[in-house]
Write a structure and sequence with these properties.
Blueprint lengths: L1 E4 L9 E6 L7 E7 L13 E4 L9 E4 L3 H17 L11 H12 L8 H16 L3 H23 L2
Antiparallel strand pairs: 1-5, 2-3, 2-4, 3-5
Helix pairs in contact: 1-2, 1-4, 2-3, 3-4
The structure holds zinc ion (ZN).
Length: 159
């Protein structure tokens, strides 16, 4: 499981959207929690939603159970492409390091100071992908760094 956070909203989650998996090895593809005000965040995510009691989870928490390739495509579609115009598949044919480096170059351009946190986290993702020898450890580190970058991007937008 990878933790993602789609907003820096501090409200408790009162809605949950659950995408059940068709695979035998997991129950869910992902579970997204939002508050009332951010319920629109779930609009682009498929699944059934319901009201839940306020609990420990904050708005924007996304419990991600999908595999590495699927989660990378999700990051590409949800925020890396809208931010940098670099898509993992269409522009980089699935080359993760090439895609992340191109996104970093885009974010290093003038006027992108607000994305310093995103750049730092993307830099960690590149480093993890290049340096780590164990592929499973590298994948987990890349997804963690991308999740941090995603939340930093939301913060830079004021979301
Ligand atoms: Zn919220």
């Amino acid at each position: 499981m990878t933790l993602r956070r789609l907003t820096t909203c501090s409200s408790a989650a009162t809605y949950v959207l659950e995408r059940r998996s068709r695979r035998r090895d997991r129950v869910y593809d992902y579970v997204l929690h939002t508050c009332v005000r951010h319920r629109w965040l779930a609009d682009s995510w498929k699944g059934g939603s319901r009201v839940v009691e306020e609990g420990e989870l904050r708005c924007g928490v996304l419990l991600e159970y999908r595999g590495f390739a699927e989660v990378l495509r999700s990051h590409s579609r949800e925020w890396v492409f809208p931010l940098t115009f670099h898509d993992l598949e269409d522009d980089h044919q699935g080359d993760v390091v090439g895609w992340l480096r191109a996104a970093l170059v885009e974010l290093s351009a003038a006027g992108r100071e607000a994305h310093e946190g995103v750049r730092a986290a993307l830099g960690h993702a590149v480093l993890a992908a290049v340096v780590e020898q164990d592929p499973k450890v590298a994948e987990a580190a890349v997804l963690t760094a991308l999740a941090v970058a995603e939340t930093a991007e939301a913060a830079a937008r004021g979301a």
